[in-house]
User: What shape does this take?
Amino acid sequence: MIPASSLAEALGLAAPELILAVSAMLILVGGAFGGRGSSGVASLSAVAALIGAAVAAAWGDQGVAFRGGFIADDMAAFAKAAIYAASAVAVVLGERWLGRAGNAQFEFPVLILIAALGMGMMASAGDLIHLYVGVELHSLALYVLAAFQRDDARSSEAGLKYFVLGALSSGLLLYGASLIYGFAGSVRFDDIARATAALEGEGTGVLFGLVFVICGLAFKVSAAPFHMWTPDVYEGAPLPMVAFFTTAPKMAALVVLARLLYEGFPEAVDQWRQVVLIVALISMAVGAFAGLAQRNLKRLLAYSSISNMGYALLAISAGTAGGIEGLLIFMVLYMVDSLGLFACLIAANRAGRSMENIGDFSGLSRVNMPLAVTVTVLALSIAGIPPMAGFWAKYFFAFQPAIEAGLWGPAAFGLLTGVVAAFYYLRLVKTIWFDPAPGEADVPPLDAKLIAYASAIWAFPVFYVVVSLIEPYAAQAGRSLGLS
Amino acid sequence: MESLVTILVFAPLLGAVLAGVLGKRGDSKPAMAVATVLLFLSAGLSWGVFYQTAWHELEPFVVRIAPFISVGDFQSAWSIRVDTLSAVMLVVVTTVSALVHLYSWGYMAEDGGRSRFFSYLSLFTFAMLMLVTAADFMQLFFGWEGVGLASYLLIGFWFHKPTANAAAIKAFVVNRVGDFGFALGIMTVFWMFGSIEFAEVLPRVGEFARTEWAFAGAQWRALDIACLLLFVGAMGKSAQFFLHTWLPDAMEGPTPVSALIHAATMVTAGVYMVCLLAPMFELAPQAKQIVTIIGAVTALFAATVGLAQNDIKRVIAYSTCSQLGYMFFAAGVGAYQAAMFHLFTHAFFKALLFLGAGSVIHGMHHEQDMRRMGGLMRYLPLTFAAMTIGNIAIAGFGVPHVFGFAGFYSKDSILEAAYAAGQENPTAMFAFIVGVLVAGLTAFYSFRLAFMTFNGPAVWKHEADAGHGLKAAAHHPDDHATAAQNESHSEPDVSEHGGAHGDHDHTPHESPWTMLVPLGVLSVGAIFAGFVFHERFFGEEQAEFWRSAMRPDRVLFPESTSRLLEEAHHVPEWVLWSPTVASLIGLAAAVFIYLLRRGMGARIAANAGPLWTFFYNKWFFDELYHFVFVRGAAKLGELFWKRGDRDTIDKLGPNGLAALSYFGGRRLVRIQTGFLYHYAFVMLLGVAGLLTYALFAFGAVE
Amino acid sequence: MVASIAFYVLAAATLLSGLAVVMSRNPVHSVLFLIAAFFSAAGLFVLLSAEFLAMLLVVVYVGAVAVLFLFVVMMLDVDFAQLREGFAKYLPLGGVIAGLLAIEMIVVSAAVVTRGAASGVRDVPAPAADATNAEVIGRVLYTDFAFLFQAAGMVLLVSMIGAIVLTLRHRPGVRRQNVHDQVNRTRAQGVSVIGAPTGVGIPDDLPQAARTPAE
Assistant: This one.
């Protein structure tokens, strides 16, 4: 990685961030003058900015800037492109949804832009401070988004819970960061690696700081036992916001965790692997078993995301370039499945009320066949049933690197919990196709419908093409980190 | 020549596909026409190949079409093997199949699923051709299963009839037993030879002549084991003793199917296989003995059962069983040529008999019980003539050294060979004696059938007068018959589909030309097939005739068989005459009981003497199997299902785990109280736990 | 020596104040203790020759944040006694975990002191003699940390947006001051001269515009 020689060059590397920040502020100013009616234009501009940022991230220059704190490499580019794309979808879903709920505000796209900015920072973070600021920046935006329906008590409650627990996790993160700094004398990942290696046998102390940091980031990805906020927030927050929560922030947090572990602690793979594995295994188990008892689909999907984060952490714990490659592709496939499922939830309404409970989906196949097929495809995909995308995501991209790293035990455990989790996806499918319909469903809104269909088509069969296209980039991203 | 042979084999497949596709669209005529024309094309080509082989001494060859399975040493390819053996089978299969296709135009005229029927028939023919032209065991097995499938589909063709479904399943399941042995046999061969290609296996059998394996405390000759396992497959497919029970029930299928599959072609696959593997069997004396005994016992058993049956098709079915027994013991004593010869002639006269019976059934408006026939000579003269030719052929009437019908030559060949082999081999002598006895029984049941059907009073007339009430009454002697038999006395009355039968006129009528032409052609075969081909199959020219594509010396059957045939040509004169005499005695008995003393047969049946009951109930095989295997398997299955699976595995396994998971899930969810400080507490618990783990695992605390 | 005494006094004060924040029954007292903790921490910064940071801490945290806290706590009227109801119930388990965490954090912190990067260093490196505290910070803040500095600005922006989004309500019928309108008002809009006949007063059928001129 070539360090940037001037501020201009450094800012060039941070072009995606600049695009997002500047457009966020422009939209804010424009919206302040335009008033409530400007939310449509604001969203459109936000989508354009996100696409621009994604392009800048994917094809922009690569290098290191700001004293090693900002890294623009293949992994950052890959993660940013995925994060910005998911954010753009969330903008579209959310703008239309808020419009239907009578709460269209131009601040919504601004908040998403700022969140995306923070997540991009995380993906590019080369030191602990960038990591922390990125986490805080996007978290604050997410708290506000969770409470966005401020007249809905559940939404406010969700926002508040998220905020308080998030503050706790930030505290953990910060405490861990300061411990690491105390041991290593530097906040930069490469310095930490060097200092840890120099400490030799004495270096284990630095890992205690790492444990705290892992806990803080595990909260962000809603990995057990730091997952407690997830079901409540998912249930209370507005649907498009949840769709956003379950995709982009997790990608960002996982990528930054991977970078911290791989670049900051390459000598201590055997140690941090144990910690990550414990979190991964608990997540898989909690996500699978607790999901069994859920009737509310939003809570169910919360548990589903918990168990999927377990799989993602499993890929990270491989400690190899293949693990990063698997993580990135797994997350992309998971994000599409999740966005699609939430789009389905947004699309499925009866008498103006969202179909939130599994029972509401009874006989959907007789009421709205295309939607029923879409939900079925996506549910089968996320359950990991071939030939859908989720099957490959889970077994090929999450488990295989772990198995290649000798972690066949955890992979087998993941397989078992996957079987348990398949129950609740299949129950949904069964409800849709075999139970009697209680009544007609509303006509689905166009945006949610199209996004849901697109996700389903992606899940099968388009992803076969796409994966072969993005796979080289993911492999390149995997190699850009310290471990081979 | 190679492309012609390829067309020959694949034309029926094309026909099956086209018939299936075309049949979807309303009118079934195009579908039937396509299938029939393609089959006749195939038959024409087959005769061409056979003519070249028999008279122009065409060099045998193998056409490779495509690789099939290629795993390590296990190589298999789709190929077409042409030699005398397969040429004979090609002729038999395609000729009978083509005639049956034609015949079905008339016989199935009123059936709604005609195109499906034709599609299945063509599919069967293709599978059978794959079987006979196989160049390795794998393709043989493929054809073997293919004909099994087609047979299943055709037996169960009238799928709305419960008995037809039951019969189809029975045929399939019984064949599974045989196929299991067959598959094991193939594996044994592969294990021994490291190859499954005939061209590699057969020339090398000599190397393993003395190989022995220890198993279950005894030494077994490897070749004996392999041959016996393969023979189990042959027993299943050819309905030999112990595995014969499916064949009579298979008569539930439409009569053309019985003629094609269950008389002329599929059931002879076992015989064909034994002859094909003659070099192996020649070096497996134990296996040969067993083949001989099973064949002889089947011949006797089936003939005795045939004596007492009343269903016209069942009589012929048991007769088929019996004749297959002949073929097997011929092969068993080493006279493979004789076995193939009988297979060849039998195809003609047995197909003729079945199609004739079909014509009778058709004329009698789907009545199959011979007791309700009688006096049909006047109404069905052409059918009567054809049936009589068939009966004479199967009974084997002829004057030695002068002329005889087809069965005369082939049956005499078998008996001569058995007698010749019997000079050194007591088993073969046993087979010879049984063979002569069965020849008499054959004549008896054949003419019993003829007399009950075509002579005597026209029972159906009274019945028509008295209405259908008699139909039930006529069943009273059947007390001991199995349910399947009781229910199977008639094919479904499909006359509501319109056509000539719509008037419900019970006067029998002669069949249309589409049905009579095949009868005529087969009659010619039944009369002359023996006379024309005797020399080539069995006589002086046999050594030149039987050529193989698979062996360097181009000889199908080992040297020892030629010596046996040589001896068979010089047996005493009385041996030649003995089957003829036995047949005449059988004929005389039939004439006495069913013509001269009218009603005597019915009285014997009514008295239900022990022997008659024994025969009538097919030696109680169905009951025995039902008791031992069906009920035993059901009991065993119930035990495993209820005690083993449901109470043990399910309870502890899936259901138990599911309940536990669900319970665990509910417990986990109860942590989710909704209170912030609980959540924060759980998070801190996690931190504390991980940190404690790290402190200990990473060695900060010593 | 003086510095050491000052350090221990200030450190103890910081810790005790922190403890008191959590333990005190009256939330207003908690906030006051928080302010005390901030002051002690500022003193610690001074000991480290980081005067600028010390002043920032006092100005920003004590002057703005803590005072804001005080207002909020006073306005919200939270009944903390009620919140503590389950305290005794949770104490055993909570105490165990808290104790465990405390021990672990002490162990880890001790490890930092004994084995950390700064374990061998006795003295704080003195700042460059020719630069003030603010200058040193300013030099890195606008070069190496320019990006972070801006990002921190974004964090503040997002908090502001969040506060507005979640609380600002445009209720109909609420009268707000509009400076622009006020400034641009002309005399013609604001004043109307009405000839009122003596002894009669303003007639009842006067036009509406004349009655409410300020609108």
